[in-house]
Amino acid sequence: MTAMTMIEAIRDAHVVAMERDDKVVVFGEDVGYFGGVFRCTQGLQERFGDHRCFDSPISEAGIVGAAVGMAAYGLRPCVEIQFADYMYPAYDQIVSEAARLRHRSAGDFTAPLVVRMPTGGGIYGGQTHSQSPEALFTHVAGLKTIVVSNPYDAKGLLIAAIEDDDPVVFLEPKRVYNGPFDGHHDRPIVPWSKHPLGEVPDGHYTIDIGSARIHRAGDEVTVLAYGTLVHVAQAAADEQGIDAEIIDLRTLVPLDVDSIVASVRKTGRCLVVHEATLTSGFGAELCATVQERCLFELEAPIVRVCGWDTPYPHAHEWSYFPGPARVGRAMRDVVSQ
Amino acid sequence: MQSDDDGTKLSLRIPAPARGEHPPDRVRYISRAGEMHKPALDEKVERIALMRKQLVRVIDDDGQAVGDWVPDLTVDEKVRGLRDMMLTRAFDARLLRAHRQGKTSFYMQSLGEEAIACAQQRALRPGDMHFPTYRQQGLLISSGYPLVDMMNQVLSNEFDPLHGRQLPVMYSAKSHGFFSISGNLATQYIQAVGWAMASALSGGTELASAWIGEGATAESDFHAALVFASTYQAPVILNIVNNHWAISTPEDFARGASATFADRGYGFSIPALRVDGNDYLAVYAASQWAAERARTNLGPTLIEWITLRVGAHSTSDDPSVYRPPDETERFPLGDPVERLRRHLESIGEWNDERHESLQAEVDTQIADAFAEADAHGSVKTGDVGSARTLFDDVYAEVPRHLREQRERMEEST
C-alpha cells in the first residue's frame, strides 16, 4: 500500500495496465514527452517508449477517431482529452462511432477504448475548464461512464476500464486530483496521504464497473453522489450532524441500482447531488430510478442539489458550485420532513 | 477617423448548381492517356506536385493502354476486373429493382463508378482494411463476399448478418477487409488512419484504405485524418471519390474556389494524385503505387478519383431536379465497363460474343443469388429476425438494465 494522490494513482494504473498488456497504448495532447498537463501520464513514454505513449495533434476528433480505428485493429487505446470541456469535437466519434461499433457490426468490430477527461470545477477554470458533461455520455447506448472520487477507486476502475471490452468514458474530477475537498474554497485540500482513502495497493487490482461504494454509512438519509460531491456531502453531513448514508456511485452506466434501492429502503429519504447543471442532469435519472422502485418507502420527496442552469462562471464559481452550505441545508430539509 | 468607405457592398461567391441547364467544367485540367509520368515511390512531394492538378490516365480513346502507368496485369486479370464491374452493376440493378418491387426500404447504387472499388480491391492484399462509404459495394463483390449475404442485408430478413440493425447498404465484413459503414460522414477517414497506425505500432504488415466522397471532405474529421496521417506517416491510402455530386450539391461547394481535391494533400506534404476513376487500369496502377509506398514506410498517399455518379444518390433522391439530363453523355471519361471492354477488344482478347456470354453468366449469378435471398422474405414482408437480438452487442455482455428492458419488451409483445 502506498499513499498516493489521484493523479499518482491514475499514473500507476497506466503503468500496471501497460506492463500487463502490450496492446495498451496511450496518447493525447501533451501526454507523451511532457506527461500531460495534470501529469497523469508522466514517465510513461520514458518507460514504455514512444510507440506506447505519444503526443498527438490538438485534434480531439482525431484523437478519438484514431483510437476507434486502433481499437478495431486490436489495440487497447487509452486516450486523454485535456479537459472534458474540449471533448465536443470528439463527441461524434464517441457517441456515433465508439459506442455503436459493436452493435452496428453485430460484433464484427469492437472498440475497447478508454477516453479519460479531467472534469468539474473549483479551480477557477471558467466556463471552458469546469464542465461536468457526464449526462451527455450516460444518455448514449453502448458507453460505460465512470466518475471517480479517490485514488483507490481511480486506479482500480481505470485498470478495469482499460481491460474492459467496451468503450469507457472515464471522468476525473480535477478538484480532487490532489486530495479530498470539502467544498469550502477557503480551506486547504486535505492531502490523500493524510486521508484513509489515499492508500492504494501496489500492483494489479480492479474494481467492478457497475458497483457503487458506501462512502459513509448512516440511517437518516441516503445521499447519492459521485466525484467531488462525495466529499462535499460528507462535509455537509458532518457539519449538520446528520447521520447520512453517502453512496459514491462510481459508475453511472451501468448503474448499481441494487445499492441505491437498498439504502433508500433503509433510510426512507433521498438527496441527489452533482456538480453538473440541474436540468436533464444525471440526477434526474437517479430521481426517476428511486421513484420507480422505492416510492412507497419514501418519507419525503427526493431533493436535488446541483449546479445552476448557467455556464460555469469564473469569478462566481463558489456561488455556482453546490458546496456544503447548499447541500447541508437540503439535507436538513429532507430529514426534517 | 477618416473613412475610405466608397460605398461598395460586400458580396460572396455562391457556386451555382447545374440546375439541369449547364454542366459545370466537369473534369479540370484533363490530361491525355499516357501523358502522366510515373514517379519513383519515394519521389519528393514537391516534384510530383503538379500531379494533383493533372490526371493519371492509361486507356486512351482507342482502347490502347499507354504510358508508364500501364499496370502489369494479365489478360485473365483484366477479364476478372471486367467481370467484377459487371457483377457489381448487375447487383445494383437487381437491388434497385427490388426497391421498386417494394422488397427493401432503401438502396444506393454505384452506377458509373464501379472501376474504383473493384480495381483497388484487386490491387490490395487480404488483411488490408478498407474504411468505405456507402458506394463501394464493389470492394465486397470483387473480394468474393457472398452475394446472398449482401442481399439478405439489403432485404433485412432473418439472415441479414447485421440482424436488421443497419441501413440496407451499410455492410460490415471484417473477414473481407471491409469496415462497418457509418451513416455519419467522414468519421471513417480518421479511423482508417488510426487503424493503419495500429498496424504499424504492432509491427504488422496490413494497410488501411480510407474512402470518402468529395462532398464529405468538408467535414472536419477529414482534416483530422490528414493531420494524423501526415504527422505519423501512417501506412494508409486516402481515397477521395469525386463523383461530382453530394446528393444535389455539386463538388464546387466542398472544393474551394479553384482547387482540386488532390490539392488537400499538398498542404500536408502528402503525395497526391488525380486519377481517371473510370479507367480500370489507371485505378489499379495508382492503387498499387500508393500501396507500395505505404508498405515500404513511405507514408500516406492521397488519391482523387475522377468519376461520375450516373445514378441517383439513393432511392430517396430525384436527380432530374438538379442535374443536366445529358450529363452522362457529356462526361469526358466515359463508362468504366465500356472502356475496359474496348481495351480488351483492342488487344484482341475480347469480342461481342464473349461479352454477351459473360453478361449472361453474371446475370444468372445475380438472379440465382437474389432468388435465394428473396426466399427468406424481407423487412417489407415482416420476415425479420428476432427483436430479442436488439439488446445483443450493445455491450460485450448484456448489462442488468438492458436485460430488464428486454424482458419488458417481450412482456409487451
Give structural notes.
The complex is a heterodimer of chains A (337) and B (413). In chain A, strand 13 (270-277), helix 10 (282-294) and strand 14 (303-307) form a beta-alpha-beta unit. Chain A folds into two domains: 2-200, 3-Layer(aba) Sandwich (Rossmann fold), CATH 3.40.50.970; 213-336, 3-Layer(aba) Sandwich (Rossmann fold). Chain A has twelve helices and 14 strands. With 337 residues, chain A is α/β, with parallel strands linked by helices. Chain B has a single domain (45-314, 322-382), classed as Thiamin diphosphate (ThDP)-binding fold, Pyr/PP domains (Rossmann fold), CATH 3.40.50. Chain B has 13 helices and seven strands. Chain B has helices at 75-100, 114-123, 137-142, 147-155, 187-201, 220-232, 252-255, 263-266, 280-295, 327-330, 336-346, 352-374, 400-412, and strands at residues 129-131, 208-213, 236-242, 245-246, 249-250, 272-276, 301-306. In chain B, strands 1-2-3-7-6 form a five-stranded parallel sheet, with helices on both faces. At the A-B interface, helix 3, helix 4 and helix 5 of A face helix 5 and helix 6 of B.
- Provide the domain count of chain B: 1
Largest Cβ-defined interface: A-B, 44 and 46 residues
CATH class of the largest domain in chain A: Alpha Beta
Oligomer: heterodimer
If you average the pLDDT of chain B, what whole number results? 94
**Which radius of gyration of chain B do the C-alpha atoms yield?**
23 Å
Low-confidence stretches of chain B: none
- The CATH architecture of chain B comes to 3-Layer(aba) Sandwich
In brief, what are we looking at here?
With 337 residues, chain A is an alpha/beta fold.
Annotation keywords:
heterodimer, A: 337 residues, alpha/beta, Rossmann fold, 5-stranded mixed beta sheet, 12 helices, 14 strands, 35% helix, 19% strand, B: 413 residues, 13 helices, 7 strands, 37% helix, EC 1.2.4.4 (chain A)
Helix and strand arrangement:
The complex is a heterodimer of chains A (337) and B (413).
Chain A: E1 2-3, H1 6-20, E2 24-28, H2 44-48, E3 53-55, H3 60-73, E4 76-80, H4 91-98, H5 101-104, E5 114-119, H6 134-138, E6 144-147, H7 151-163, E7 168-173, E8 199-200, E9 213-216, E10 221-225, H8 228-240, E11 244-248, E12 251-253, H9 257-267, E13 270-277, H10 282-294, E14 303-307, H11 317-320, H12 324-336
Parallel strand pairs in A: 2-3, 2-4, 4-5, 5-7, 6-7, 10-11, 10-13, 13-14
Antiparallel strand pairs in A: 1-8, 6-12, 9-11
Chain B: H1 75-100, H2 114-123, E1 129-131, H3 137-142, H4 147-155, H5 187-201, E2 208-213, H6 220-232, E3 236-242, E4 245-246, E5 249-250, H7 252-255, H8 263-266, E6 272-276, H9 280-295, E7 301-306, H10 327-330, H11 336-346, H12 352-374, H13 400-412
Parallel strand pairs in B: 1-2, 2-3, 3-7, 6-7
Antiparallel strand pairs in B: 4-5
Helix pairs in contact in B: 1-2, 1-11, 1-12, 2-9, 4-12, 5-6
GO molecular function (chain A): branched-chain 2-oxo acid dehydrogenase activity; magnesium ion binding
Pfam families (chain A): Transket_pyr, Transketolase_C
Protein name (chain A): 3-methyl-2-oxobutanoate dehydrogenase (2-methylpropanoyl-transferring)
